[in-house]
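Re: the multi-chain job from yesterday

Posting the exact lines I submitted so nobody has to dig through the queue logs.
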Amino acid sequence: MTLIAPDVGIPDQPGVETVRRLAERCSNWGRWGADDELGTLNHIGPDEVAAAAGLVRTGRVFSLSIPVDENGPQTGGFGRFNPIHLMIRDGNGAATGTTVRDFYGGRDRWIRGTDDLLILPLQSGTQWDSLAHIVFDNRIYNGYDATSVGSKGAIRNDIANARDRLVGRGVLLDIPRAKGRPWLEPGEAIHAEDLEACERAQGVTVGRGDIVLVRTGQIAQCRDAGSWGAYAGGPAPGLALDAAPWIFDRELAAVATDTWGMEVLPNQTEDVFQPLHIILIVHAGLLVGEIFDLEALAEDCAVDGRYEFLISAAPLPITGGVGSPVNPIAIK
Amino acid sequence: MTLIAPDVGIPDQPGVETVRRLAERCSNWGRWGADDELGTLNHIGPDEVAAAAGLVRTGRVFSLSIPVDENGPQTGGFGRFNPIHLMIRDGNGAATGTTVRDFYGGRDRWIRGTDDLLILPLQSGTQWDSLAHIVFDNRIYNGYDATSVGSKGAIRNDIANARDRLVGRGVLLDIPRAKGRPWLEPGEAIHAEDLEACERAQGVTVGRGDIVLVRTGQIAQCRDAGSWGAYAGGPAPGLALDAAPWIFDRELAAVATDTWGMEVLPNQTEDVFQPLHIILIVHAGLLVGEIFDLEALAEDCAVDGRYEFLISAAPLPITGGVGSPVNPIAIK
Amino acid sequence: MTLIAPDVGIPDQPGVETVRRLAERCSNWGRWGADDELGTLNHIGPDEVAAAAGLVRTGRVFSLSIPVDENGPQTGGFGRFNPIHLMIRDGNGAATGTTVRDFYGGRDRWIRGTDDLLILPLQSGTQWDSLAHIVFDNRIYNGYDATSVGSKGAIRNDIANARDRLVGRGVLLDIPRAKGRPWLEPGEAIHAEDLEACERAQGVTVGRGDIVLVRTGQIAQCRDAGSWGAYAGGPAPGLALDAAPWIFDRELAAVATDTWGMEVLPNQTEDVFQPLHIILIVHAGLLVGEIFDLEALAEDCAVDGRYEFLISAAPLPITGGVGSPVNPIAIK
Amino acid sequence: MTLIAPDVGIPDQPGVETVRRLAERCSNWGRWGADDELGTLNHIGPDEVAAAAGLVRTGRVFSLSIPVDENGPQTGGFGRFNPIHLMIRDGNGAATGTTVRDFYGGRDRWIRGTDDLLILPLQSGTQWDSLAHIVFDNRIYNGYDATSVGSKGAIRNDIANARDRLVGRGVLLDIPRAKGRPWLEPGEAIHAEDLEACERAQGVTVGRGDIVLVRTGQIAQCRDAGSWGAYAGGPAPGLALDAAPWIFDRELAAVATDTWGMEVLPNQTEDVFQPLHIILIVHAGLLVGEIFDLEALAEDCAVDGRYEFLISAAPLPITGGVGSPVNPIAIK
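And the result, structure tokens for all chains:
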């Protein structure tokens, strides 16, 4: 494992050619066979899981999901809205007696139930992007055609492939804390050298099969401001282009951030939007998590100095899903 | 911990009075304070979680969720339908170029994304019932009024309370296997003595804070038949009334089955529908899981003879949710 | 028919007692029988419809609905959002060939279809309020209990009752034009005397069975501003309390406005929100239309001086619906 | 106007070449300009509307929509399900007091409202197909590219184009009644000569700009059977291929039937599914209505012998919609 940030020669004004070069540099197409749909999840095997379980010391459990409700960050971009929660039957119907009338055929057998429903854009809150989420040059991960993702969903690379994955060693890289600040500012890039400096500051090293959580503090900043503001789709701190080969070389299984889109926004590439999505999701086949709420976990890690833990973050096995909501659980 | 099935004196033809007696016998109202919304999840603390992590040996991971898609078991009962998966934007739009037109304001910056959406009844597939899911005598768990569950969802006992819970020691009780059969038949009751016989056959003992998975084999039976048939709401094998005090006395944190509704159907009580929901959810405050797919896990347990494992099954933190889909993960 | 605005003695600071008095004054409970669910629609019979058809001269047709799409006025109040339009299958799938794969079982028989879906709050755009939409003192129109509107919808007074109604003589009362202004300002009340002055200015008289469209110009104002702003739920011009007995005495079948909520906002009653909804919907049983786009029709009426026409505005027959989207058609 | 069924030389075993020939024979591409999106709706102008209003005699009104609810005919084909109706807030909340808590910020100002929501596949019930609903050889009506119908809906030929159309002379052709039968059987074709025989039997002639309702009686048959059965997508009586040039030559504005898909099923063309959709929607630009409930209207027409009326059947102006639910109103 290299501990040196790779020299990938990012030019001052990178563009699509740089993206193509990095995509080739970080490509995992074919690495696990022509039929692979797991990408970097192949870096985790049973041994890694067993070892990760050994990291549990105190049994403290952290949920890394923001609440699933109408108060989320979405403002309509890309057709995404906040989850809509509706009752199919509720306790008022129990209290007034209409539940029996409406749901039990009028026969009262003492019980009354309540049921509910979500209308849920799968990328609206804390979520995994599947390897079918991004298309570049008409291809998704491992070279499958873009048309693999049709009106009925993805027949290749859907999120259900990860149904029994995304369990393993989790490592938090708390970038602002390593820099002695509460959060990074929107537009502030996290370079490979920042990731390594954070490792050194925290006394931890990330490697093959790790699920790495990169904290920018943007959720803390929103809470401090009392509003999501432009969190969804607006300027954000995030990973820089040179983080891609670093992530690739370290053979990480997944990377998640506490931002809407993992990458620094505005992007370094004037002509390419969200270039790391192209490099990491399409070519490296990396599972990317977004809108992970790392605040409570980060507090705890700062207190005990332990930044590694067992993480259990399997998605819902949504057939054809190009994303999935997830409540990632860190166990220390 | 008692290993003896409690003598609860279930009459031959039990009715609502038996249900009331059992509800009183198994009540946890007030046990953890007048404001408690966690119920039996209080049986799990950090020590139990840490001990459970110690059960992991091989790192094999099992997903216990059925696929989230339109081919689920629901047929409309109680307003429940199978999940509806729709694309907001797909790979065809990437292939034809309309993604740029429709989602990026006409400016081509190389990337194309796909997004999707679920319309998801929260009790449609593999799920946890929250402690707000069942009302009896106009009360939900801990005595809160039924009107705590209004049009906007539950303001008491919602599933989000369990956001960092439902992680702990999992134990599979494979009832049919202990009886040397592939599955129990619909209408076949599982009594406390069956649970204990299964413990003995498997060489395992369940106790305080455990998340117990009771396999009936009904999903296997449906797969064998090639159809869900009347799985959702129809006759089912399941727990009998005398299982309630047994579960209560063992101080289990949660119980899940591979059936639609945990209980034997037709119920023992002619006049009460789903009496265990009243006793266990409303009064004991027990988290109940349903439609857990235990087949692959059961095969593995039969092979290695180990029926205990770490289970990680936190729900989505749906504000006001009376249930949540879950992809329960068993780690052996 | 009285042509004089009734003296209803509205006090300077009206409150709930005034509302109660007006509700009693304008009540139609029992007028058409104890089982009536039609309310003022009883004022229209075949003769009125036939006479209304006779108003058609030129055959010009006006649609009075705002577009049904995500750019509507809703901002989340009362759980209302703008309609969400999603494709089930689209033309891109036809172009790339995935429609055959995903929807025709892989057998190409030349045709490709497109299908779509709406998630539609029924009060989100141009709509009729049913007589089940408002509850006062636990009663809806004709005295039915509030619990008639349960989790499955209204079993009394649902909008489907009007499936073959709301066809008849339409009359536009263009209040701002009668006052020589482009629009009324938010908070500006329309009194009975304004309605009568408008009748005189336009040379038209409204009466029994008419479907009266009251233009405030608020939609024009929003268009002029380039934004819906606070249109949904915010300050609005609209009917004053003394319009209620006027509407009642005139025996109108329905009243619609180009505002979110028909009434002047802020309301005259400090302690009662939307008092006319109580008086007119609950007690008079009046069908109320909202967010009717009257701009093009008003222009035409101003040109030819004819403010009466055939209107055809039946709702969708939504079983249990407490409202319905509608595309009201005026034929001149 | 020809009253003779055109000799179009349909071979005994027609196939795609016959469809192509008929499509060319019946094409309206370019007829109303390269930018036209109205198709045969151009056949109706103000004069036709005014004349149609003159058909109103008695003022009897007929709704031609089936109920919009969960009991509709859909069974999942093409991703279509029956409408799902959910309450956002209901009368139970009014009765128990939670409406004030949940929707009015806790401040009681006397009123309580109820609101609801539909999840509505636009082709699930009584509906118009827009001219963007069918693609053939990668083109929709007037030659627009299939990709005009992307993830955000149709940017060409959407149903909103008809927002102030589909009002005019309606004519019912009651085919089974003309044959002295209660209904046609599934698979029974309606040929041009059947249409003309029906005209003669009824003493009516259809022509330019008419909105023609062709009754097969299939809904009556379903009602008689007590079940929708295979109504949605299964064998059906319907129009034969030779009806296409007849409809084209008569210059009808729209054709609707009481079946799921207008055409006889099984289709005459072994290799082409729903060939009339290709000929009439894609090439003739004809508005097609489906699942129109013609039973009550047909009874009335049989009684008074008058088969013509004013019809008002504008769709909801759904931006980008490829279909729309409609409650068509016939006024006699």
